[in-house]
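I am still learning, so can you show me any protein sequence you like together with the matching structure tokens, please?
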Amino acid sequence: MIRRFAVAAAFVVSAFFLDGCTCCAYLNHMFNAERLYDEAGELRTARLDSVPDETASTPSSEERQKYDKIIEKGSHVLERFPKNKKRTAEAVFLIGESFRHKGEWAKAITKYDEYERYFADYDSMRAVEYQRAYCLYRNQEYNISRFALEPVVADKAHPYYFQGLNLLSLLDEHSEFPDQAIAALEAVLADTSGTPFMRGKAHFRLAGLYFKKENWDKSREHYTAKEIEQLTPRERQTAGEQAAECLVNRKEYLKAADEYKALFKNPDYEKEQPQYLVRIGEIMLLAERYADAFVVLQKVNSDYPRTAFASQSYYNLGNYEQTKTVNYDQAIIYYDSSFISRSICSYGQKSRELRDALRRLVALRNTNNAVKKDSVPNVANFFSNEFQIAELFLFKLSEVDSAIGRLDQIIASSSDSTRVLRATYARAFIYDEFKNDEDKAEELYKEIIEKYPNTEYAKQAQANMGMRVTLQTTDDVARERYMQAESLWTIAAEMPLDKMDMVDSAYATAFAAFDSLYHEFPQTDAGAQALYMKAVYFEMNPNRLDSAVMVYHELKSKYPRTPWGKRASEMLNTRNKDTEKELERLRKRVKQSLEHIDQLSAQYYEDLNKKPEEKKIEVKSKEDEVLENTYNSMYDFE
């Protein structure tokens, strides 16, 4: 830095003696630009030391201001020295780098393209090749980025060769080709010329890719590689945590707990100690070391009360009591403690939902126990509660086997075929969607189709099995019959009136079809609609109006909630009825009229009580009087 200031001082002295020298102006701009670039680089290094992942960190305002100044200085050089390629090449490169560090990827790409177009022979071209590909990747232009990266990964002597392989693996990962990404990173490790830091980066990325593929052995191998020690503290910490999680997934619980204990004792990770304690407790539960797990989790509750860690700890205790000991009362207490500890965290929210579900389940179970003891039990309410309990197990408590067990009890103890059908279908659906046991689900679906062929459940069973739906319910058959009768009615309506005998015969045929439909399927919507069409037919004949009235009465009494029953009610009620809206409007008009009458009455009595001298007629002055010009213009009035 002292050397830079000495050089700058020499430039200033030279400028004093050589007034008007453009070289001095250039050197002044570039000296300041390079100084600012070094200062911004120091800020950037400090920022990335605290947040190693560059994609998760943004430049500070001070850092951005320095890059803006660099862009300004470089632009001055391009304006004043456009013909000096050496000077403009350096300015274009610094501008592109500044845009890149600011995260303005499109502008950086433009400058890198400009550099290659005009200054491809200069030293910074090798850096430009890689940085342009990186900016294209960050700008989500993955295919173009891969194309731009080709000269980097094609030459092992390229100074950015290993960075290029790492970027290539990122591109493969984003293009949903994890195997190609793994191959690119394996190529980095296969080449012994890479630096330990770059090899550590490759190990870290490879471990993450294998972890996503659930290859726990390979993932742990790379997370525990010796080059991982070259990475930043945050990356080393992540590697240690993920290596332990690989052991958990391999069901080596005690070994995984020991590795988390080592992380807990590491002074560098002091802030993560409560999280590690909770995880150790969870792993002990998985290892069925329940006493040890309770000691660890209760330590979290006492050492970190009213925190998200305590909420998670209580949640795990509640889950243990719910699923292992089936002590729902104690589970409710733990879930309630979890919610109270930190109600806004995810575990607090889940605990509240589970607590409420368990309370509901316990209440339903107690109700059904009381129903069993009644001398005349309410069977309908009992089985309704049983279905609700099964739904709570399935959707709220995530206890699939408990839900199936409840449904099995309904099927075994109920004599109602409709109730048994519903429970059987629900059990088949659970095996299909929740347990992914396609063989068992298919067996149950076929049982439904065989025993209850003319039901909606059988139709849905066919659809769930991927079969063409061929079964028909009573409603389906009635609906088809109605469509046929309606087509006969349409044919009759379209006949010419000069052939009345044929018209009457066609309407009679349609009437017979509606009548037959109604008598065969009176409990369906199509049957109710057919009865309405009978009334319409009777209304067409003046001699059959009494019959129409009788049909409307039947519709009104048997199907009051259907659209046709409501229409029949309207037809029978011929009195003029005002709606509530119309009545409100009439009330408002009467109120306004009364108010107007009161105003006129008050004005009348006020004028009546005035003194005689106050009742003089007001006469307008001649100046104020305006005459209407409507006289005939043939006459002249003076």
